[in-house]
Amino acid sequence: MATTAARPDPRDFLDIAQLLTPEETMLRDTVRKFVTDRVLPNIAEWFEQGILPRELAQEVGRLGLLGMHLEGYGCAGGSAVDYGIACMELEAGDSGLRSMVSVQGSLAMYPIWAFGSEEQKSEWLPAMAAGEAIGCFGLTEPDSGSDPASMRTHARRDGSDWIINGTKMWISNGSVADVAVVWARTDDGIRGFVVPTDTPGFSAPDIGGKLSLRASHTSELVLDDVRLPAEAVLPGVASMRGPLSCLNEARYGIAWGSMGAARACYESALSYATEREQFGRPIASFQLTQRKLVEMMVAINRGLLVAHHIGRMKDAGNLAPQHVSFAKFDNVRAALHIAREARSVLGANGITLEYPVMRHMNNLESVYTYEGTNEIHTLILGHAITGIQAFS
User: Fold this and answer.
1) Would strands 189-196 and 202-203 be described as parallel, antiparallel, or unpaired?
2) Spatial distance between the Cα atoms of 319 and 162, rounded to a whole number of angstroms
3) What whole-number percentage of the chain has pLDDT above 90?
4) Is residue 295 part of a domain?
5) Structural domain boundaries, residue 97
6) What pLDDT digit, counting tens, does each position of 217-246 carry?
7) Which residues lie closer than 8 Å to 238 by C-beta, 6 or more apart?
8) Which of 193, 204, 72, 184 is nearest to 128 (CA)?
9) DSSP string computed for 130-154
10) Is the dihedral of CA 77, 81, 87, 90 positive or negative?
11) CA 235-237-242 angle, 5° bins
12) Sign of the C-alpha dihedral computed for residues 357, 360, 366 and 371 taken in this order
C-alpha cells in the first residue's frame, strides 16, 4: 500500500540520522550541545584574536573525546563512527577545535598507543586523554611537506642517548604542547621519539600572520641538540609506516569534520536566504539562489553518506588507506565549494564574523592542504585505479 512520506528535512534531506544507533545519536547530541553552548558564543572572538583557550582541552577530555577511538589508558574505546561523529560536530564549531582534537588523538596519542612501550603509554596516554597533557606531531618540515620521506631532521646515538637536530613546520598544538611525537631519520630508518617539550634545546615558536585556522596554535618545532634517553624512541616501528599510519587516522577524521563545516555554512545560507528580502520577497524565492542551496544540500548529503560508509568499513576492518583518500579528497573540496557558495548567498554579510561562513571558508583552505594535499590524494587514487605510480 502506497504511503506519502513527510516533506524531507532541509537540514537532513536523506534522513541520514536514521543510520545512527541510539548511542551514536546521544554522542552527536552531547557534542553538538557542547559546541552550541561553549564554542559558538566565543569562536568569532577567538578567531579574531588568534587563540584557542587551553582549558578547552580538559573540557573536551571530560567528554571523553581525546583519543576516543583508542582503548585503555583512560581512552573511551569508541568506534570509528563515534570518532567521526565527534569530528563532524566539533568542526561545525570550528576547524581549529577539531584540529586540536585530531592532533591530540590521531597524531600524538595514536603513535604512542600503537608503537610505544608500556612505560610510554602509561606515562602519557591517561593525562592526554584527560586533556591534562597536550601533544603535537612533528613530521612536516620547511622543505618537505608532501614528501615527508625526504625529511632532514636526524637523530644520532651518543652512548645510550639520542641527540636530535632539525626543524618541523606547521605543527598544530606545538606551542602549547607538553609532549611532541617527533619523526627523525636515523641509521636504523625513520624513527619516532617521544619528546617532552621542556627538554633543553626544544622550542616551539608560534607562526604568526595566519589568515586561516586562527583559532588554533600553529608552530615551528626547533630541535637543537635535543638529548633524549634510549627509552624515548618508539620501539614498535622503524619506517615511514609509522607516521603515515598516523596521518591516515587523522585524514579519516577530516572526512567527517569537513562535512560539519559544510553543514554550518549551508544552514547559515539557508536561514539567511529565507529571511533576507530583496525586490519585495525572500531571496530564497529566486531560482539562482535555490540552485545554490540545492547544490549545497546534495553535496553535504553525499559527503555524509561517504563518511558513514567508510566509518562502517573501518569498524569492520575493511578500510584501505585509499578509501580514506577518496573521502578526504572529495569531502574537503566539496566543503570548500559549499562555503564559497554560501558566502555568495550572504552577500557582503558573508565576509563578517557575525556569520560563520567566511571563517569556515578560510579554515577549509588549510584543511584542503593539510594531511595530504588534494593533489597528493588525487595521485593516490590514480595509483589505486591504474596501478601506475605517478610520483616516487
Assistant:
1) unpaired
2) 36
3) 92
4) yes
5) 16-129
6) 999 999 999 999 999 999 999 899 999 999
7) 186, 188, 189, 190, 191
8) 72
9) TTSS-EEEE--BTTBSS-GGG---E
10) negative
11) 130
12) negative
249 is catalytic: no
Length reported for the chain: 392
Residue 289 CB partners (closer than 8 Å, separation 6+): 273, 283, 345
pTM: 0.95
Element spanning 182, H or E? strand 179-186
CATH code, 214: 2.40.110.10
- What are the phi and psi torsion angles at 161 (to 5°)? -90, 170
Residues 344-369 have pLDDT tens digits of 999 999 999 999 999 999 999 999 99
Q: How many domains does the chain have?
A: 3
User: Is the distance from CB of 297 to CB of 13 less than 8 angstroms?
Assistant: yes
Last residue of a domain, one of 176, 206, 238: 238
Give residue 191's identity as a one-letter amino acid code.
Answer: R
Closest CA to 108 of 192, 178, 168, 180: 180
CATH number, residue 66: 1.10.540.10
Instruction: For residues 252 and 379, state if they share a domain.
Output: yes
Q: Out of 89, 220, 249, 371, pick the active-site residue.
A: 371
C-alpha to C-alpha distance for 88 and 243, rounded to whole angstroms? 24
Give the residue from 205, 184, 207 showing the smallest Cα distance to 194: 184
Binned at pLDDT 50, 70 and 90, residue 337 comes out as: very high
pLDDT digits (tens, 9 = 90+) for 193-208: 999 999 999 999 999 9
3 assigned to some structural domain: no
**Residue with the three cell numbers 561517504:** 306
Which residue, among 195, 63, 59, has the nearest Cα to 135 in the 3D structure? 195
